[in-house]
Design brief:
Helices cover 30% and strands 28% of the residues. It is of the alpha/beta class.
Length: 365
């Protein structure tokens, strides 16, 4: 059977960009579909902006602690709009250097801005401002990513709240910030905003910060962050938020006692969920759960010609693993070379100061 494309890649984030580039280099006629902007979470709402704001915060901290280096401490006035402007500038630079559609079109990849959904296991429908169009593919790489998960907290629909997808669009600096979640995003941003001048309170259901990291090292990091001024409420859950005269009132329960905290902004750093809802995977017969699309170590779904890579699988929400999975999928798909994911040596780092890194088996494992 003749297909419109050898490979159709759904999603233009780290996984999709890598898969499309490799497929084109292998000589495959390739279509890449992205509904927003190429670059995905890493460029626009994740790695790049978070590290840019962390760097600005670290410079601010060095200025305050200049005497550690034999220099004179200097009082610091942070122009937050300038900081955010710098973050936007860095994002735009990365996009121009690495993510622009023209870069991939010059590789021979057709890039389309549209919403993709399966019609059957070899056909997808593209919905764009120009209307609907159906195309067929011999192979598919689903790289549709994940989005910030918003927990069901009473009153959340009545206030303006932040996730990592809106945090870097802030205009006004929050002098008082509540962060729900003490994972990597919550930990990095708590330190960044504290160093920029916020009074930060982190509310976490678990008994430690960085619940997937070594408990001893996580405790050392928590102690360091507390010395910088961050307040932790561990073993606590937010049960209600509402607008107040002085900002946002956050009610949380800890050890059976309900406390209320008033802040200017609340950041939900409560994890991410795969973007499954618009793909119509049932039409293609692709198996999935609420955690993501089910794949084997070759990144293949239950349909032999359909692969899933990156955050959409729910396995590893790291940019480097998204790229690793893209290489595994396209190599198996097009070269039939039996490569498998390396799941024993997955590195990850949370870029607090000091960083907390991990690779390989934990002590418990």
């Amino acid at each position: 059977m003749a297909y419109d494309y050898d490979v159709i890649v759904i999603g233009g984030g780290a996984a999709g960009l890598t898969a499309s580039g490799i497929a084109a280099n292998f000589g495959a006629k390739t279509l890449m579909i992205e509904r927003h902007r190429l670059g995905g979470d890493c460029t626009w709402t994740g790695c790049v902006p978070s590290k840019a704001i962390l760097k600005a915060a670290k410079v601010a901290q060095h200025v305050r602690e200049a005497n550690k280096y034999g220099l004179i401490d200097t009082s610091l006035n942070v122009d937050f709009k300038s900081v955010i402007g710098h973050v936007h500038h860095i994002r735009d630079e990365v996009y121009e250097d690495a993510d622009r559609p023209e870069i991939y079109e010059n590789m021979g990849i057709e890039v389309v801005s549209a919403e993709a959904s399966f019609v059957d296991d070899h056909t997808i429908e593209l919905q764009s401002e120009n209307g609907a169009k159906r195309v067929t593919g011999r192979y598919f790489a689903i790289a549709a990513g994940a989005s910030a998960w918003v927990p069901p907290i009473e009153g959340l629909d009545t206030i303006s709240y932040l996730t990592n997808e809106s945090l870097f669009e802030l205009d006004n600096f929050p002098n008082r910030l509540a962060i729900v979640g003490a994972g990597p995003i919550g930990s990095e941003m708590s330190q960044a905003f504290t160093r920029l001048g916020s009074k930060v309170t982190v509310i976490e259901r678990g008994s430690q910060i960085m619940g997937k990291d070594d408990p001893e090292l996580a405790a050392m990091l928590q102690s360091r962050l507390e010395k910088e001024g961050i307040t932790y409420q561990l073993g606590a859950g937010v049960n209600k938020v509402q607008q107040s005269n002085n900002g946002i009132a956050v009610s949380y329960e800890k050890n059976g006692v309900v406390e209320t905290l008033e802040v200017d902004q609340i950041l939900l750093a409560t994890g991410r969920r795969p973007n499954l809802s618009t793909l119509n995977l049932d039409a293609a017969g692709v198996q999935y759960t609420k955690r993501g699309i089910t794949v084997n170590d070759k990144c293949r779904t239950n349909q032999r010609h359909i692969y899933a890579i990156g955050d959409i699988t729910g396995r590893y929400q790291f940019t480097h693993m998204s790229e690793h999975m893209a290489k595994i999928a396209t190599t198996n798909m097009l070269l039939k070379f039996p490569m498998k994911m390396d799941t024993q040596n997955v590195p990850w780092v949370t870029f607090t100061d000091p960083e907390l890194g991990h690779v390989g088996a934990t002590q418990e494992q």
